Amino acid sequence: MPRKGNSTPAEIMDVAMTLFVERGYDKTSLREIAEACGLTKAALYYYFRTKDMIVRAALDAYTESIVDLLDWLDATDPGPKRDVEFVDRLLAIFDGQGSLALRFTQSNPTVLAREDFSHRNVDHIRELVTRIAGPDPDPDAVLRATMAVGSLVLSAMPETPIGPIGDADSRRKAARALALEILTPLSARRAGC
After folding, report:
1. pLDDT at position 4 over 70
2. Which residue of 30, 47, 109, 155 shows the fewest CB atoms closer than 10 Å?
C-alpha cells in the first residue's frame, strides 16, 4: 500500500483511517501510516503529530461535508430534482470520508474521539431527516425521510446487523434506487400532485 512521498493531508487521513478500520486504532502506528503514505515519520509530523489529530481531522472533514449538505438543502426548493441531487450528494459523501468515518466509529469504539463524533453524527442525520421530511411533517413523511436517509447511511457500511450486503457499488446502486423510490411519493405530495 505504500504511495509516493508527496501525500496531502486528505490522502494521509484516507490512508490512516483505512488502516485504523482494517487493523484497529491501537494496533496502527504513526510509522506504519507514514510508510503507507510513502513518507518519513518526520514528514507525517509536519501535518499530524498524533493519531488522534488524524482522527479528529478526518471526522471533522466528514462533519463539514454533512453541514454543507444541510446548508444546500436549506437553499434549495423541495421537489424531485432536489431529492435526486440530495441522494447523489449524500452517496458521494459516503463514497469517501463518510464511509471511513462511520466504519471507524464501529471498529474502534474505545477511541475518545468517537463519543463526541457519535453525538454530532446522530444530530446531523436527524437534521437531514428533518429537512427531507419538510415542515410540519406527518408520520408518513417522517418515516419516508428516515428510511431514505437510513438506506443511504447503510450503503456506507459493508456489514449490517444481519451480515455483509455486497460490494460497495452494489450497495450504492441499491440504496440510491430505494431512497428515490421512498422519496417519490413525498415529493409528489409536496408538489401537490
Report:
1. no
2. 109
